[in-house]
Amino acid sequence: MLNVNGDAVLTTLRTLAGFGAVGSGVCRPALSPADLAARRWLAGEMERIGLRATIDAVGNLYGAAPGAGRSVLIGSHSDSVPTGGWLDGALGLAYGLEIARAWMEARPGAPVGIDLIDFSDEEGRFLSCLGSRSFCGDLPGLPAGFAEEAASAGLGTAPHSRLDPQRHRAFFEAHIEQGPRLEAAGLPIGVVTGIFGMRRYAVRFDGRADHAGTTPIALRRDAARLLYRFADACHHRFRQAGSADSVWNLGKVSLQPGAVNVVVERGELLLEFRDLDPVALDGLSAALAALVGEFDGQEGVRVSLEEAGRLAPVSLDATLRGLVADAAAARGARSMPLPSGAIHDAMVLARSVPTAMLFVPSIGGRSHTPVEDTRADDIVLGAHVLAQAVFACAESL
């Protein structure tokens, strides 16, 4: 069993929270001065405990255990959304730093090491999970504007860090839940079963612009009116088509020409839905397509559908999940299996290496907001549970 220091974990988290601090929250978008300062500080901490730290061309900070031919990789991200909280991403890095320190203290010179990685741009300032995609060789090209920002930050010529299947035998990521399930159940540890897939669509409504003061309601081809009816129908139909875990969001509406005295000619609704079950995702997609067919032509408005993006769901490694559950039980902590509705770097890693995730409760289920928080006791317990799971994994390699 690894002897991890809970106070050291909390100290690391509080120090990271000072980079880009805004009130009780943080603002550390990828490649911003605050983000780079946090990574450089964390690189120094990695070096202090004996890891070899490098920041690569996309901003990934990788700490390698010297002398190890095989390793367990722990990681997360230190970038944030513009109005983020102090624990999103940072929690997993604080755990990893302390676990790597404890492992090197307990097993100096061991052929198996604990490596730590801070992935760049998980939150998607340029591209969601950009750093982990680069690390896994799943980044065909850089998004617009990224190369210029990286070059100005001095990252342009740094070699890319890469996943090495011969070295990196397993990946663990700890994270706040960012939802209410653990708190509602009164449980301190979540064992993540998988990460939701996502389907994103644009629904377009084409009507006719007319004078809003002189055109009778019955004669209008009002794209907005049909869009609003369609949106309401989506909620009812998706409840029938999805699973108990399905979630959806009708997140953005645009109307043209956007004048209060002109009947809306064009409308666009951007929506997404998520689920761990591909069958449920297919059912939701089919329900959406059927709705488009039903509404097309009503009130003289044409309705069309275009897919705007998708991610396949990912199941996490059953053996590693068992190690996390066993570690929680060994600490006398009750745990529960649950899926992640949020996208994480673990989703990218899981396609290339056995992967597990651990959740700790989010107070009020809140995240991506400065009020994001977790009880200190839960943070410390999570560190001990992850350490024991990583220890068991490393001992088996």
How would you explain this protein's 3D organization?
By secondary structure, this protein is an alpha/beta fold. The protein folds into 2 domains: 6-196 and 313-396, Zn peptidases (Aminopeptidase, 3-Layer(aba) Sandwich); 197-311, Alpha-Beta Plaits, CATH 3.30.70. The protein is 35% helix and 25% strand. It contains 11 helices and 15 strands. The chain has helices at 6-17, 33-49, 90-106, 130-135, 146-152, 181-185, 223-241, 278-295, 318-330, 345-349, 376-396; strands spanning 21-22, 25-26, 52-55, 61-64, 70-77, 112-119, 168-176, 189-195, 197-206, 247-256, 266-275, 302-311, 314-315, 335-340, 355-360. Strands 3, 4, 5, 6, 7, 8, 13, 14 and 15 form a 9-stranded mixed sheet that branches. A 4-stranded antiparallel sheet has the order 10-11-9-12, covered by helices on one side. A hairpin with a 5-residue loop joins strand 3 and strand 4. The longest helix has 21 residues, at 376-396. The radius of gyration is 24 Å and the shape is elongated. The two termini are 16 Å apart. The mean pLDDT is 97.
What can be said about this structure in brief?
With about 400 residues, this protein is an alpha/beta fold.
